[in-house]
Predict the 3D structure of the following.
Amino acid sequence: MSIQFSDEEIGLNAVNETEVSKKKLFNPEGNDKVQNRKITGGDTTNLFNLNDTKYSWAKNMYRVMMGNFWVPEKVDLSNDIKDYKKLTKHELKAFKGTISFLVFLDSLQTNNVPNIADYITAPEVSTLLAIQTYQEAIHSQSYAYILESIVPASERAKIYDFWRDDKILLERNKYIATIFQNFIDTPNDETFARVLVANFILEGLYFYNGFNFFYNLASRHLMMGVADEIRYINRDELTHVTIFKNIILALKDEKPGLITQELVHQMFDEAVQQEIEWSNHILDNHILGINEQSTEKYTKFLANMRMKMLGFDELYEGYDVNPYAHLEKLADENNDGVKSNFFESTVTNYSQSSSVDDWDDL
Ligand SMILES: [Fe+2]
Ligand SMILES: [Fe+2]
Protein backbone atom coordinates (compact mmCIF):
# COMPACT_ATOMS: atom_id res chain seq x y z
CA MET A 1 0.00 0.00 0.00
CA SER A 2 1.50 3.31 -1.03
CA ILE A 3 1.45 6.26 1.29
CA GLN A 4 0.14 9.51 -0.21
CA PHE A 5 1.64 12.79 0.89
CA SER A 6 -0.02 16.11 0.35
CA ASP A 7 1.84 18.87 -1.51
CA GLU A 8 2.18 20.71 1.76
CA GLU A 9 3.81 17.75 3.46
CA ILE A 10 6.44 17.38 0.77
CA GLY A 11 7.08 21.11 0.78
CA LEU A 12 5.68 22.05 -2.65
CA ASN A 13 3.69 24.87 -1.15
CA ALA A 14 6.48 25.92 1.13
CA VAL A 15 7.64 28.74 -1.13
CA ASN A 16 5.90 31.97 -0.33
CA GLU A 17 4.29 33.02 -3.60
CA THR A 18 5.03 36.65 -2.95
CA GLU A 19 8.76 35.98 -2.96
CA VAL A 20 10.62 36.13 -6.26
CA SER A 21 11.27 32.80 -7.92
CA LYS A 22 13.31 31.67 -10.87
CA LYS A 23 11.29 31.35 -14.06
CA LYS A 24 10.87 27.96 -15.69
CA LEU A 25 12.82 27.41 -18.89
CA PHE A 26 9.96 25.55 -20.56
CA ASN A 27 6.47 26.45 -19.52
CA PRO A 28 3.88 25.29 -22.07
CA GLU A 29 0.98 26.32 -19.82
CA GLY A 30 2.30 29.87 -19.52
CA ASN A 31 0.49 32.97 -20.70
CA ASP A 32 2.45 35.80 -22.33
CA LYS A 33 -0.54 37.98 -23.14
CA VAL A 34 0.44 41.61 -22.67
CA GLN A 35 -2.02 42.16 -19.82
CA ASN A 36 -0.44 39.24 -17.91
CA ARG A 37 3.13 40.38 -18.24
CA LYS A 38 5.10 41.37 -15.19
CA ILE A 39 8.74 42.31 -14.68
CA THR A 40 9.07 39.36 -12.30
CA GLY A 41 6.66 36.67 -11.16
CA GLY A 42 4.82 36.57 -14.50
CA ASP A 43 3.70 33.33 -16.12
CA THR A 44 5.98 33.54 -19.16
CA THR A 45 6.47 30.74 -21.69
CA ASN A 46 9.84 32.38 -22.57
CA LEU A 47 8.73 32.66 -26.17
CA PHE A 48 9.99 35.97 -27.48
CA ASN A 49 6.75 37.30 -28.89
CA LEU A 50 8.15 40.77 -29.39
CA ASN A 51 5.36 41.98 -31.64
CA ASP A 52 3.30 42.45 -28.50
CA THR A 53 5.01 44.39 -25.76
CA LYS A 54 3.82 45.75 -22.45
CA TYR A 55 6.91 47.79 -21.64
CA SER A 56 7.17 50.28 -24.50
CA TRP A 57 10.47 51.68 -23.16
CA ALA A 58 12.03 48.29 -23.89
CA LYS A 59 11.30 48.61 -27.61
CA ASN A 60 13.09 51.95 -27.70
CA MET A 61 16.00 50.63 -25.67
CA TYR A 62 16.43 47.67 -28.00
CA ARG A 63 16.86 49.95 -31.01
CA VAL A 64 19.25 52.20 -29.14
CA MET A 65 21.42 49.34 -27.86
CA MET A 66 21.64 47.68 -31.27
CA GLY A 67 22.48 51.05 -32.85
CA ASN A 68 25.32 51.45 -30.36
CA PHE A 69 27.28 48.43 -31.59
CA TRP A 70 31.02 49.10 -31.60
CA VAL A 71 34.32 47.25 -31.92
CA PRO A 72 37.20 48.18 -29.56
CA GLU A 73 39.91 47.45 -32.16
CA LYS A 74 38.53 50.09 -34.51
CA VAL A 75 39.89 52.78 -32.19
CA ASP A 76 43.48 53.68 -33.06
CA LEU A 77 45.66 53.67 -29.93
CA SER A 78 49.03 54.31 -31.60
CA ASN A 79 49.36 57.86 -30.22
CA ASP A 80 48.40 56.63 -26.76
CA ILE A 81 51.58 54.51 -26.65
CA LYS A 82 53.62 57.72 -26.86
CA ASP A 83 51.35 59.54 -24.37
CA TYR A 84 51.66 56.71 -21.85
CA LYS A 85 55.38 57.48 -21.56
CA LYS A 86 54.56 61.13 -20.76
CA LEU A 87 52.24 60.35 -17.81
CA THR A 88 53.42 61.35 -14.33
CA LYS A 89 53.88 58.60 -11.75
CA HIS A 90 50.60 59.67 -10.12
CA GLU A 91 48.76 59.55 -13.46
CA LEU A 92 50.24 56.11 -14.13
CA LYS A 93 49.05 54.86 -10.75
CA ALA A 94 45.58 56.30 -11.45
CA PHE A 95 45.54 54.83 -14.97
CA LYS A 96 46.39 51.33 -13.82
CA GLY A 97 44.17 51.39 -10.71
CA THR A 98 41.19 52.74 -12.65
CA ILE A 99 41.51 50.12 -15.39
CA SER A 100 41.82 47.47 -12.69
CA PHE A 101 38.52 48.51 -11.09
CA LEU A 102 36.73 48.87 -14.44
CA VAL A 103 37.87 45.39 -15.53
CA PHE A 104 36.40 44.00 -12.33
CA LEU A 105 33.06 45.76 -12.78
CA ASP A 106 32.61 44.65 -16.38
CA SER A 107 33.73 41.08 -15.66
CA LEU A 108 31.29 40.90 -12.77
CA GLN A 109 28.45 42.24 -14.90
CA THR A 110 29.15 39.83 -17.77
CA ASN A 111 28.71 36.96 -15.30
CA ASN A 112 25.96 38.43 -13.15
CA VAL A 113 23.39 39.92 -15.53
CA PRO A 114 22.17 36.44 -16.63
CA ASN A 115 21.47 35.62 -12.94
CA ILE A 116 19.06 38.54 -12.83
CA ALA A 117 17.57 37.68 -16.22
CA ASP A 118 16.55 34.29 -14.77
CA TYR A 119 13.94 36.14 -12.72
CA ILE A 120 12.68 38.53 -15.40
CA THR A 121 9.43 37.38 -16.95
CA ALA A 122 8.73 40.11 -19.52
CA PRO A 123 10.30 38.85 -22.78
CA GLU A 124 10.95 42.37 -24.09
CA VAL A 125 13.03 43.10 -20.96
CA SER A 126 14.84 39.73 -21.02
CA THR A 127 16.01 40.57 -24.55
CA LEU A 128 17.63 43.77 -23.30
CA LEU A 129 19.50 41.91 -20.57
CA ALA A 130 20.87 39.49 -23.18
CA ILE A 131 22.22 42.44 -25.17
CA GLN A 132 23.61 44.02 -22.00
CA THR A 133 25.46 40.81 -21.16
CA TYR A 134 27.16 40.75 -24.54
CA GLN A 135 28.04 44.45 -24.23
CA GLU A 136 29.64 43.80 -20.83
CA ALA A 137 31.77 41.12 -22.50
CA ILE A 138 32.87 43.64 -25.15
CA HIS A 139 33.77 46.11 -22.39
CA SER A 140 35.85 43.46 -20.62
CA GLN A 141 37.64 42.70 -23.87
CA SER A 142 38.21 46.39 -24.65
CA TYR A 143 40.43 46.68 -21.55
CA ALA A 144 42.48 43.73 -22.81
CA TYR A 145 42.91 45.59 -26.11
CA ILE A 146 43.92 48.80 -24.30
CA LEU A 147 46.41 46.95 -22.09
CA GLU A 148 48.00 44.92 -24.87
CA SER A 149 48.27 48.05 -27.05
CA ILE A 150 49.75 50.38 -24.46
CA VAL A 151 51.06 48.68 -21.35
CA PRO A 152 54.21 46.51 -21.38
CA ALA A 153 53.40 42.79 -21.06
CA SER A 154 55.28 42.56 -17.76
CA GLU A 155 52.86 45.03 -16.10
CA ARG A 156 49.52 43.67 -17.36
CA ALA A 157 49.07 40.84 -14.87
CA LYS A 158 49.68 43.26 -11.98
CA ILE A 159 46.80 45.42 -13.22
CA TYR A 160 44.42 42.47 -13.46
CA ASP A 161 45.49 41.25 -10.01
CA PHE A 162 45.66 44.64 -8.27
CA TRP A 163 42.58 43.84 -6.15
CA ARG A 164 44.38 40.88 -4.58
CA ASP A 165 46.87 43.16 -2.81
CA ASP A 166 45.07 46.49 -2.62
CA LYS A 167 42.92 46.39 0.52
CA ILE A 168 40.58 49.22 -0.48
CA LEU A 169 39.89 47.74 -3.91
CA LEU A 170 39.42 44.27 -2.44
CA GLU A 171 36.91 45.60 0.11
CA ARG A 172 34.77 47.37 -2.43
CA ASN A 173 34.90 44.53 -4.94
CA LYS A 174 33.90 42.18 -2.12
CA TYR A 175 31.03 44.47 -1.08
CA ILE A 176 29.33 44.50 -4.48
CA ALA A 177 30.12 40.86 -5.31
CA THR A 178 28.66 39.75 -1.95
CA ILE A 179 25.34 41.44 -2.74
CA PHE A 180 25.26 39.60 -6.07
CA GLN A 181 26.34 36.28 -4.53
CA ASN A 182 23.74 36.53 -1.73
CA PHE A 183 21.00 36.78 -4.35
CA ILE A 184 22.34 33.70 -6.17
CA ASP A 185 22.62 31.72 -2.92
CA THR A 186 19.39 32.89 -1.30
CA PRO A 187 16.98 34.35 -3.83
CA ASN A 188 14.14 36.17 -2.10
CA ASP A 189 12.48 39.56 -2.27
CA GLU A 190 15.07 41.19 -0.04
CA THR A 191 18.14 39.92 -1.93
CA PHE A 192 16.40 40.65 -5.26
CA ALA A 193 15.70 44.26 -4.25
CA ARG A 194 19.32 44.67 -3.15
CA VAL A 195 20.71 43.16 -6.36
CA LEU A 196 18.63 45.51 -8.51
CA VAL A 197 19.64 48.61 -6.57
CA ALA A 198 23.28 47.44 -6.57
CA ASN A 199 23.12 47.10 -10.35
CA PHE A 200 21.65 50.56 -10.70
CA ILE A 201 24.45 51.94 -8.50
CA LEU A 202 27.15 50.01 -10.33
CA GLU A 203 25.94 51.18 -13.74
CA GLY A 204 25.10 54.70 -12.59
CA LEU A 205 27.75 55.67 -10.05
CA TYR A 206 30.73 53.31 -9.78
CA PHE A 207 32.14 53.87 -13.24
CA TYR A 208 32.10 57.62 -13.37
CA ASN A 209 35.01 58.95 -11.33
CA GLY A 210 37.08 56.53 -13.42
CA PHE A 211 35.56 57.73 -16.68
CA ASN A 212 36.20 61.32 -15.62
CA PHE A 213 39.86 60.58 -15.03
CA PHE A 214 40.20 59.56 -18.68
CA TYR A 215 38.23 62.60 -19.87
CA ASN A 216 40.50 64.71 -17.67
CA LEU A 217 43.57 63.30 -19.45
CA ALA A 218 41.89 63.86 -22.82
CA SER A 219 41.20 67.50 -21.86
CA ARG A 220 45.00 67.81 -21.71
CA HIS A 221 45.37 65.99 -25.06
CA LEU A 222 46.63 62.81 -23.40
CA MET A 223 45.47 59.26 -24.13
CA MET A 224 42.86 60.41 -26.65
CA GLY A 225 42.33 56.89 -28.05
CA VAL A 226 41.62 55.46 -24.60
CA ALA A 227 39.15 58.30 -24.01
CA ASP A 228 37.37 57.24 -27.22
CA GLU A 229 37.10 53.66 -25.92
CA ILE A 230 35.75 54.99 -22.63
CA ARG A 231 33.11 57.08 -24.45
CA TYR A 232 31.79 53.95 -26.18
CA ILE A 233 31.68 52.11 -22.84
CA ASN A 234 30.12 55.15 -21.15
CA ARG A 235 27.41 55.27 -23.81
CA ASP A 236 26.55 51.60 -23.24
CA GLU A 237 26.57 51.99 -19.46
CA LEU A 238 24.04 54.79 -19.71
CA THR A 239 21.64 52.44 -21.49
CA HIS A 240 22.21 49.93 -18.68
CA VAL A 241 21.38 52.59 -16.08
CA THR A 242 18.19 53.27 -18.02
CA ILE A 243 17.24 49.56 -18.14
CA PHE A 244 17.59 49.20 -14.36
CA LYS A 245 15.86 52.52 -13.75
CA ASN A 246 12.86 51.32 -15.76
CA ILE A 247 12.85 47.90 -14.08
CA ILE A 248 12.88 49.53 -10.63
CA LEU A 249 10.16 52.06 -11.57
CA ALA A 250 7.94 49.25 -12.92
CA LEU A 251 8.50 47.21 -9.75
CA LYS A 252 7.52 50.17 -7.57
CA ASP A 253 4.04 49.69 -9.12
CA GLU A 254 4.02 45.93 -9.44
CA LYS A 255 5.58 44.98 -6.10
CA PRO A 256 5.01 47.98 -3.81
CA GLY A 257 7.34 48.00 -0.83
CA LEU A 258 10.03 45.91 -2.55
CA ILE A 259 12.32 48.84 -3.32
CA THR A 260 11.98 51.59 -0.76
CA GLN A 261 13.58 55.00 -0.42
CA GLU A 262 15.13 53.79 2.83
CA LEU A 263 16.89 50.90 1.07
CA VAL A 264 18.02 53.10 -1.83
CA HIS A 265 19.36 55.79 0.51
CA GLN A 266 21.20 53.27 2.67
CA MET A 267 22.82 51.52 -0.31
CA PHE A 268 23.71 54.76 -2.07
CA ASP A 269 25.28 56.20 1.07
CA GLU A 270 27.53 53.16 1.46
CA ALA A 271 28.39 53.24 -2.26
CA VAL A 272 29.18 56.97 -2.18
CA GLN A 273 31.53 56.54 0.79
CA GLN A 274 33.35 53.68 -0.93
CA GLU A 275 33.56 55.55 -4.23
CA ILE A 276 35.04 58.62 -2.54
CA GLU A 277 37.50 56.56 -0.50
CA TRP A 278 38.62 54.61 -3.56
CA SER A 279 38.89 57.69 -5.78
CA ASN A 280 40.96 59.55 -3.20
CA HIS A 281 43.15 56.49 -2.77
CA ILE A 282 43.82 55.95 -6.47
CA LEU A 283 43.74 59.54 -7.77
CA ASP A 284 45.68 60.65 -4.73
CA ASN A 285 45.08 64.44 -4.92
CA HIS A 286 47.84 64.63 -7.50
CA ILE A 287 45.92 64.72 -10.76
CA LEU A 288 45.58 68.17 -12.27
CA GLY A 289 41.94 69.22 -11.96
CA ILE A 290 40.92 66.41 -9.56
CA ASN A 291 41.14 66.62 -5.77
CA GLU A 292 39.32 65.38 -2.67
CA GLN A 293 36.82 68.23 -2.79
CA SER A 294 35.92 67.77 -6.46
CA THR A 295 35.62 63.99 -5.99
CA GLU A 296 33.20 64.42 -3.08
CA LYS A 297 31.20 67.10 -4.87
CA TYR A 298 30.96 65.06 -8.06
CA THR A 299 30.11 61.74 -6.41
CA LYS A 300 27.34 63.24 -4.24
CA PHE A 301 26.01 65.29 -7.17
CA LEU A 302 25.82 62.16 -9.32
CA ALA A 303 24.24 60.09 -6.52
CA ASN A 304 21.55 62.77 -6.02
CA MET A 305 20.82 62.76 -9.74
CA ARG A 306 20.52 58.97 -9.85
CA MET A 307 18.23 58.82 -6.81
CA LYS A 308 15.97 61.42 -8.43
CA MET A 309 15.78 59.20 -11.54
CA LEU A 310 14.13 56.58 -9.32
CA GLY A 311 11.66 59.11 -7.96
CA PHE A 312 13.32 59.28 -4.54
CA ASP A 313 14.54 62.28 -2.55
CA GLU A 314 18.10 63.52 -2.81
CA LEU A 315 20.36 62.39 0.02
CA TYR A 316 22.98 65.13 -0.11
CA GLU A 317 21.66 68.63 0.36
CA GLY A 318 23.54 71.33 -1.49
CA TYR A 319 25.32 68.96 -3.88
CA ASP A 320 23.60 70.13 -7.03
CA VAL A 321 26.53 71.44 -9.05
CA ASN A 322 28.74 69.25 -11.20
CA PRO A 323 32.40 70.22 -10.64
CA TYR A 324 33.38 68.44 -13.85
CA ALA A 325 30.90 70.23 -16.10
CA HIS A 326 33.83 71.41 -18.22
CA LEU A 327 34.50 67.75 -19.15
CA GLU A 328 30.95 67.25 -20.34
CA LYS A 329 31.74 68.23 -23.92
CA LEU A 330 34.67 65.83 -23.98
CA ALA A 331 32.46 63.05 -22.74
CA ASP A 332 29.83 63.79 -25.33
CA GLU A 333 31.81 63.96 -28.53
CA ASN A 334 34.54 62.03 -30.18
CA ASN A 335 35.91 61.58 -33.65
CA ASP A 336 33.24 59.06 -34.49
CA GLY A 337 30.39 61.38 -33.55
CA VAL A 338 29.57 59.25 -30.51
CA LYS A 339 27.07 60.97 -28.27
CA SER A 340 27.00 59.69 -24.74
CA ASN A 341 24.77 62.40 -23.32
CA PHE A 342 26.83 61.81 -20.26
CA PHE A 343 24.99 63.66 -17.57
CA GLU A 344 21.37 63.31 -18.53
CA SER A 345 21.27 59.57 -19.07
CA THR A 346 18.50 59.93 -21.60
CA VAL A 347 18.48 57.94 -24.78
CA THR A 348 17.07 60.45 -27.22
CA ASN A 349 20.42 61.45 -28.66
CA TYR A 350 21.53 57.96 -29.47
CA SER A 351 19.71 57.21 -32.67
CA GLN A 352 22.10 56.20 -35.42
CA SER A 353 21.54 55.27 -39.02
CA SER A 354 22.16 51.62 -38.15
CA SER A 355 19.20 51.52 -35.78
CA VAL A 356 16.20 49.56 -36.94
CA ASP A 357 12.92 51.44 -37.28
CA ASP A 358 10.61 48.82 -35.93
CA TRP A 359 10.69 45.35 -34.45
CA ASP A 360 8.84 44.23 -37.56
CA ASP A 361 11.89 45.15 -39.64
CA LEU A 362 14.04 42.57 -37.92
FE1 LIG B 1 30.09 47.59 -18.91
FE1 LIG C 1 26.98 47.98 -17.75
User: Anything to note?
Assistant: Residues 75 and 286 are 29 Å apart (CA to CA). DSSP finds 13 helices and no strands in the chain. The chain has one domain: 78-344.
